[in-house]
Amino acid sequence: MAKLIQTEEETLLSEAAHGFLSKSAPVSRLREMRDSGEHSDPALWQEMAAAGWAGVLVPEAAEGSDMGHAAAHVLAREMGRNLTVSPFLSTAVMAATLLRQFSDDSATSKLKQIAVGGLTYALALDETAKFSPDQVELTAQSRGNGYVLNGKKRFVVDGCDADRILVLAKSDAGLCLFDLANKAQGLTQNALKMIDSRDAADLIFDDVEVSGEALLGDPGAGFDVLKPALEAGQAALAAETTGLAEAAFSLTTDYLKERKQFGITIGSFQALQHRAAHLWCEIELTHSAVLNAGRILDETPDQATLAVSVAKARATDTAQKSVQEGVQMHGGIGMTDEFDMGFYMKRARVAAEWLGDYGYHAGLVAQLRGF
Q: In the chain, which end has fewer C-beta atoms inside a 10 angstrom radius, N or C?
């Protein structure tokens, strides 16, 4: 059975990431970006790439650091603490996990570019209001040696700024996964105004022609190719969300220790102590679930579905509890824009929906356990 505590190497990585992000990408940086209308930070991404983060799941043969999913979760958790804006999940986690399944020159070249921060990706899956990746209406019609794509994708995170798009479409052979340029002729990006101030878009495919080389895997095997990348992204998002919950909890407990009523700190009130203790227990359990998902993704990825959905469901629920308790225990200031708790609440809400909400993953857990 895997040990659900961080290794010494993971602890050192966490400390290094914490120091870097606290200096280069604190919550105040997100506030600056929100106020100036920015939704991406290319300079920060280059610094992350120089530190080896962009290549955390890229094989060493493709010039990556190949540290594994558990290490990627350490980085994602620290990004969650600081609400760091980056294409880490879409590019370094999901695209890298997907492309490393292939050994051809094209995949290797793209992995090398990802590792040095020279190529970013977005994953285009959702077509309805709720996450349901295998329900696809976007069509891929064969034409000559290639395909023509028509349809829509919604809530594509990093959909405006990414260099390339991974898109799932249905063809006569079944679901197919394509890798195409985000500036392909006939592809339109309609930017979304997100409450977490990040890049997302609805994509319109209008007779987008792609060559046969854009197809990843065999015709009809698109979801099989996508599944490992999807689970890697869901687990890493759970890690980010857990870091978010920890930071919101820390803000709250610091406030309980300094805010006074009737001449004493409110943290001395037993009712608030019980609420804080319950939340701490929930966060620790969720952290263990994320650690378990990372260990399984690294050691037996074919058996990771249950662990990943447990982690994503728990992280979603825990983050909601943490930010709601944070706002309530801060009283009136918890609702103000000047206080950072609102940024954590907005990111928790968006992260809850991306790659499957609590109901989606809890349902999958129940199905896998035979409930």
A: N
- Locate the DSSP E strands across the chain: 121-124, 139-143, 146-157, 164-171, 174-181, 187-191, 200-210, 215-216, 260-261, 264-265
pLDDT digit string (tens) for 134-157? 899 999 999 999 999 999 999 999
What whole-number distance in Å separates Cα of residue 237 and Cα of residue 280?
A: 20
72 touches 57 (CB < 8 A)? yes
Structure tokens belonging to residue 127: 């077509």
Which positions ≥6 away from 171 have C-beta within 8 Å? 139, 140, 141, 142, 147, 219, 220
Looking at this protein, which amino acid is placed at residue 139?
A: T
User: ∠ CA(247), CA(251), CA(254), 5° rounding?
Assistant: 135
Measure the CA–CA gap between 259 and 256, rounded to whole angstroms: 6
Residue 258 tokens read as 């300094």
- Extract the residue ranges of the chain whose pLDDT is less than 70: 1-2
Query: pTM of the prediction?
Result: 0.97
With b for 16 or more beta-carbon neighbours within 10 A and e for fewer, the 292-329 pattern comes to: bbbbbbbeebeebbbbbbbbbbbbbbbbbbbbebbbeb
